[in-house]
Structure formats: structure tokens, C-alpha cells
Specification:
This protein has helices spanning about 5, 25-40, 50-60, 75-85, 100-105, 125-130, 150-160, 215-220, 245-255, 255-275, 305, 310-320, 335-340, 350-355, 370-385, 385-395; strands spanning about 15, 65-70, 90-95, 110-115, 135-140, 165, 170, 190-195, 205-210, 225-230, 230-235, 280-285, 295-300, 320-325, 355-360. By secondary structure, the protein is of the alpha/beta class. The strands form 5 sheets. It has a 4-stranded mixed β-sheet with strand order 2-9-8-7. The chain is globular. About 50% of the residues are buried. The structure holds ligand T4K.
Length: about 400
């Protein structure tokens, strides 16, 4: 296989992204129908019938009492913190998350305390979390990285013992579960992102799942400026409503989700098969502890066995128009805002994982997905076989 680093011509004609939206033709058609109906009703936002239907469908799908739709998952977390009175003290979370998990705490006046991860799951380590809980702790906020849910029973027990709240960033975890229990089923509220790059999308959007009806009522008031009845704001709310057009897009994809998940599962299987014998690669298992939606495929690169560093492999793939990502790199604790404000925590497992990790595309523009995954695996194999020359060529192009 010829490589772009030598020939100058990329394998793929157009860039293949991690997180490129998945929009099947049927979803586009369904969306147009639902959006037209919304235009026909002339109700475009403010808790319209499509948003109401989506709330019901998402709650049923996750076997939880209430699904509260919001404009995005960052606002979901902010509303939750506000509704739970978490506006001071410390929040324990992993640095291996999207920066919004930490930022939402900061916005509400909580100080994020970054804990290390479990190297197998990449999720908040209960051991390090317990170690870092002080009298100032008010909340534990694990992130279910790549849809692998954190050990919620252990964290729920810890939160109860230490008198703090548990809520979870389930941004990646639509249609996932931990030992058969989906997000929202562990007695703690959890929020999911419906961003365009996610497995299940409303373009921009998110949802809070909770089994607590009083909390759900409070969240519905807070997302609508604090209005509990017309002309009377009983709470200091914000605008976090989902539009009917966003709800239409999400509703249109619901009937095709099982097929979508099967397709993503086939991409995973193809990557796993084709990369199994490439030295120096370890694949992140996503479905050992529960169900996964297979939106993310991640692996770890061991430079000495693979022959090229993780960043070298990322660059060689970029030249082929494969825009793999070092997901959550460099970690929240190493991002400028937190470096300047907080003493740098020692997070050895996080640093090791983020120095080696890479996520590969699982959706593709204009290509048959399994064939595309096989081609990417073939490129990685070819890069490994000529790793020395590839490294030299990359240094020359710098
Ligand atoms: N917690 C976790 C664990 C999260 O991962 C996120 C969001 C949140 C909380 C907060 O959820 P939201 O408030 O967003 O609902 C993206 C997304 O903006 C963000 O939603 C996501 N996580 C984060 C991990 O990634 P970027 O800026 O790093 O990626 P972006 O938008 O450039 O998309 C990645 C690639 O996908 C692009 O390079 C090109 C491709 N793409 C993207 C979009 C949006 C397309 O081809 N078409 C598109 O429409 O933030």
C-alpha cells in the first residue's frame, strides 16, 4: 500500500473525521416531514409537541421516570448543579473528560478537583476519588468515557457514605448501560449530549435523566427562565429550551437507532479484527461491563513496539485524510485555564493514557463503513511496517 507521506496523495479523497455526524437518508426524509409539520403548526420552540414526544421516547428508552430536554449538555450540567444547590465547595471529577464538565462546575461556583482514572475503563478512579474527598467536597461527577459507564454502584455508595451528591456526565452514553442499568437508573441524575457529533443527535441539544419527579419539575422551570406559570418567575432560571426543529431531527433518527448501532458495531469488529496483530496497539474495550453504542473506537499506541509515536501515527494518518484524534488530550488539568488557577494534580494514569490514546473515525463521508474501517486499519499496518522510513519522512516535512 502506497502511503501519502511518500507519494503526497492521500488515500481518502475527503477528510474522514472522528465525530462526523451520522445522518442516514431516511433520517433526512423523516426530519423534513416532522419539521414541515412544525412549520405548519407554527410552533417552533417553547415546549412544543415534538419536544414533549422526544422526552417521553428518551425516558422510555432509558427506563427512567423523567427525561428533561435542554439546549445542550453543558447547560444540562449547569441546571442540575443549580437545582441541587451545588454552587460552592468542591466537585470531584476526572481530568479525562471534555472541558465543559469542569467549566460547568466553575460557572456555578464549584471548584473542580481532578482525580486520576482507572487505566482500563478510562473513567474516574473510585480509589483516587475517595482519597481526594475533603470536608469541602459537595459532588462527585464521573464521565462515562466513550460510553463505558463508570462504576455507578460503587460511586453511589461512596457519595452516600461521604455525604456528597452524585451526578454523571453521560454525554457519550445514550443507549449504553452498566450491568444492564442505563444512565439515570442508579439513583443519581445523569445528562447526555445530543450534539451533532454524538451517537444520537438533535444538532445541538441534551437531556437530563432522573428518577426524581420533583427534580425534573424544578429543571423544567429552570430551563424556561424560572417561569412556573405565565408571568411569574419563581426561580432564577435561564433559557435552555430545545427547539422543535432540533427535536424533529432527533425524533427522525429514533426508528433507525438499532440499525445505526449494529452498523457501528460492525465497524468496531472490523477494526478489532484487522488491527489485532499489529504490534504496539492495544484496543480500548467498550462493551465488557455493559452495553455500548459503539460510537467511539479508541486504541493506545506503544511507540517502542509500534515503531512510531502516537503523534507520528496521527500525522501519517492525517496525510491520508484520516483525522484521528487524541481524544481529551491533554486533559483538563493541563489546559491553560486550570493550569493557571489550580495546583497541578499528579494524575499519572491520566497522563499515560492521554499520551498514548487515539480515536479512529467510526462514520465516513460517502464510503461503505466496514470497507473504510478496513482501509484505515490497512493504512495503520502499512505505517507500522515502514515505521522507520515514515518517521524520517515526517521529520523532513516539518
Ligand atoms: N461532556 C462530554 C464528555 C462531552 O464530550 C461533551 C461534548 C460535553 C460534555 C458537552 O456537550 P454539549 O454541550 O456539546 O452538548 C466537540 C463537540 O462540540 C462537543 O459536543 C463534544 N463533547 C466534544 C468532545 O467535541 P470539538 O470542537 O472538539 O469538535 P468539533 O465540533 O470540531 O467536531 C469534531 C469533528 O467532527 C470536526 O473536526 C469535523 C466533524 N464535524 C463536526 C460537526 C459539528 C462534521 O463533520 N460536521 C459537523 O457538523 O467539540
Amino acid at each position: 500500500m502506497d502511503l501519502a507521506v511518500f507519494s503526497g496523495s492521500p488515500f481518502f479523497a475527503v477528510p474522514q473525521h472522528v465525530g462526523g455526524p451520522v445522518v442516514e437518508p431516511e433520517v433526512r426524509e423523516g426530519f423534513h416531514r416532522l419539521a414541515d409539520a412544525a412549520f405548519g403548526r407554527n410552533q417552533l420552540t417553547n415546549s412544543g409537541p415534538l419536544a414533549a414526544r422526544l422526552e417521553e421516547e428518551v425516558a422510555v428508552r432509558h427506563r427512567v421516570g423523567d427525561a428533561v430536554l435542554v439546549a445542550n449538555a453543558t447547560l444540562a450540567q449547569m441546571l442540575l448543579l443549580r437545582a441541587l444547590g451545588l454552587t460552592s465547595g468542591e466537585a470531584l471529577l476526572s481530568a479525562n473528560t471534555f472541558v465543559s464538565t469542569a467549566h460547568a462546575c466553575e460557572w456555578l461556583g464549584m471548584r473542580p478537583i481532578f482525580c486520576d482514572i482507572d487505566p482500563d475503563t478510562l473513567n474516574l478512579s473510585p480509589v483516587d476519588c475517595e482519597r481526594k474527598i475533603t470536608a469541602a467536597a459537595r459532588a462527585i461527577i464521573p464521565t462515562h468515557v466513550f460510553g463505558v459507564m463508570a462504576d455507578m454502584p460503587v460511586l453511589a455508595d461512596m457519595a452516600a457514605r461521604r455525604g456528597v451528591r452524585l451526578l454523571a456526565d453521560a454525554a457519550h452514553a445514550f443507549d449504553c448501560d452498566f450491568g444492564g442499568v442505563p444512565p439515570g437508573g442508579f439513583g443519581a441524575p445523569e445528562f447526555i449530549s445530543f450534539h451533532a457529533t454524538k451517537y444520537f443527535s438533535s444538532l445541538e441539544g441534551g437531556v437530563i435523566l432522573t428518577g426524581d419527579p420533583a427534580l425534573a419539575d424544578e429543571l423544567r422551570i429552570l430551563r424556561n427562565f424560572g417561569f412556573s406559570r405565565p408571568f411569574d418567575a419563581c426561580g432564577c432560571g435561564i433559557n435552555a429550551k430545545m427547539s422543535e426543529i432540533s427535536a424533529a431531527f432527533a425524533l427522525a433518527s429514533l426508528p433507525f437507532l438499532d440499525r445505526r448501532r449494529r452498523g457501528l458495531g460492525e465497524v468496531h469488529a472490523a477494526y478489532r479484527r484487522e488491527l489485532a496483530d499489529v504490534p504496539g496497539l492495544r484496543i480500548h474495550p467498550v462493551d465488557r461491563l455493559g452495553r455500548n453504542n459503539y460510537r467511539y473506537f479508541a486504541l493506545f499506541v506503544d511507540e517502542s513496539a509500534f515503531g512510531l509515536s502516537r503523534d507520528g501515527l496521527l500525522e501519517a494518518l492525517r496525510l491520508e485524510n484520516v483525522l484521528a484524534r487524541h481524544y481529551f488530550y491533554p486533559g483538563c488539568h493541563r489546559m491553560g485555564y486550570y493550569q493557571d488557577r489550580l495546583p497541578r494534580p499528579e494524575l499519572p494514569a491520566t497522563d499515560r493514557a492521554l499520551a498514548a490514546i487515539m480515536a479512529l473515525p467510526t462514520s465516513f463521508v460517502g464510503l461503505e463503513p466496514v470497507a473504510a474501517a478496513k482501509s484505515i486499519a490497512g493504512l495503520i499496518q502499512a505505517i507500522h511496517e515502514r515505521a522507520g522510513e515514515v518517521g524520517l519522512a515526517l521529520r523532513k516535512t516539518k
